[in-house]
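Weekly sync notes, structure subgroup
Attendees: PM, AL, DS (notes)

Item 1: joint prediction request from the bench team. They want all two components modeled as one assembly rather than separately. Inputs as received:
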Amino acid sequence: MVKNAPILIPVVYLTACLVIALIRPRFRHFAYPVTLVAVSLASAISIGMLCLVIQYGIMRYQFGGWVPPIGIEYVIDPLSGFVLVVINAVACLVLIHSLNVNKVEMDQRLVPYYAVVMLFMLGLNGMVLTGDFFNLFVFLEISSLAAYGLIAVGSKGSAFAAFRYLILGTVGASLYLLGLGFLYLKTGSLNMADLAAIIPFVQPQKDPALIIALVLMTTGICIKMAIVPLHGWLPDAYTLAPSVTSSLIAPIGTKVAAYVLIRMLFGVYGVDVISREFPITFVLGWLAAAGIIYGSVMAIAQTELKRMLAYSSVAQVGYIGLGISMANPLGLIGAVLHVLNHAVMKACLFLVAANLRIQTGHSDISRFDHTYRVKMPWTMAAFTVAAISMIGLPPLAGFFSKWYLALGAIENSQWIFLGVILVSSLLNAVYFFRIIEKVYMKSPGDHAAKEEPAVKFGSVEPALSMLVPTIVFAVLLIGLGLFNALIVTRLILPMLPPGM
Amino acid sequence: MESILGHYVYWVIIALLCIGLYAIMFKKNLVKQVIGLSIFQTSVILFWVSSAVKWNATVPIYDPAYPLETTALYINPLPHTLMLTAIVVGVATLGVAFALLIIIFRRHRTLNEDKLIENMKEW
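Output from the run, pasted for the record:
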């Protein structure tokens, strides 16, 4: 049972996908409980596996008994176990929240929607679990194809946004495959652990093919991760997608790409190659820094909450990229911690945006005033907590990942990056306090009198199924902040690659 | 001359790659972009397939005429097998792309990128 645990998560998701797809339209409301069962099972399994891995070391599962590198294997080490817990737990809470949102936004399409959600989760989990680069490509495409479908069912422009994402995403995946071709030609292996052992003997600094492979694969992954010049698909896709899709994809989609990047750069090529012999981290660092500033400035310019959050995602992914690019332990701790923190923060903020959309029919920042706080005090409290965490005030979670990133920048003497982190915190403060100020201070003014209260469920808080996940995320942010030392020492330190 | 004739496969692949990228970046019609995408994917698949080509070698099934010591006489089947998967993935991508194009056309009555981006500002 424990030996076969790694395969259980994909099996659970695939089974759930098939079961949901078989539900007749008349019984479409059964899709929601099946989804919940699957995703909570997967969360429980991943939490159990993380505990086992921390205690007993790396778990491996070999397909069909073929010994790697000939066969495909699933590997769970502290890093992948951690990312598994993050994506499954966040998805679990977001999907609990989806009950009423989906009833309003896509009542007739519940069955296919939840079936595709299961496929999406399958793809992401597979990318994290696998120890084989080609298998990773297949799972990458599964999750991406599911994501295109999930985005395209949103508002009018969503199909076009999904199409642009499809073009960019497929180009990214093809570049990844091309790079993988070079890697395979030079080394004759696709297994990550095997490659990590072979690459030092091939000596990348003398062999341009391996460097080309590194560059092509990094570019492909960076498209998925939305590092700045390659972020074009993200704002429209997040904004125009249905509420559940954006609150599902925004917290975990780009994080898995970040995981793949960490795995490839540190787990396979190794710190020496990427930071000294061929400094790809130098390019990544400057692009990430540019992305942080660009995303924050663009977020200030937005007037719609979801679009603002989308640009803020571009900035936050930049933090993760910056942490990876530092190639020192503190930077990597900051990046991994930010994967967790940003997943929770962004999920909380997107759930608040969904609550606003369902309860008031819009998420237009200019129309916010203090009646929103009177109408939904808990939702707005959760928003405030998440916003303060995004800005990075202690004791909330967001502060600590930025703290480690800043320490990493100091250790490398990268003063400009340190400045970027500080400036972007101020920019975050500008665009979040703008909303908090409106919600807590601004009186409703004249335009509110003219506006009919476009409230669907009464002028109170959203339903419990929506309110509870939102508040749980907000409480989690406080908890993650308070216990961050525990998370870093128990979970993140064991995952640092050897030689760091 | 040697670098052109000796590696003509790679030059063809590079040409296909560039044609595909050109169509994706500069064509305004979304169907043409999808065609470009398909060419782009095909060039990557060709790269993998050409990498495992070997003259005067045989299929990777044990043949008494070729003793096991001469493994160089057998073709490596792995790149070709992997590309079967990649082709299937490409077909699935094309299917999703065309499904999206149908939705886009139904919603906006156009497949011209400029017009769609112009419309986009109103949503």
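Discussion: Chain B touches chain A at residues 21, 24, 30, 33-34, 37, 40-41, 44, 47-48, 51, 79, 82, 85-86, 89, 92-93, 96-97, 100-101, 103-104, 107-108, 116, 119-120, 123 (CB under 8 Å).
Action: AL to compare against the crosslinking data before next sync.
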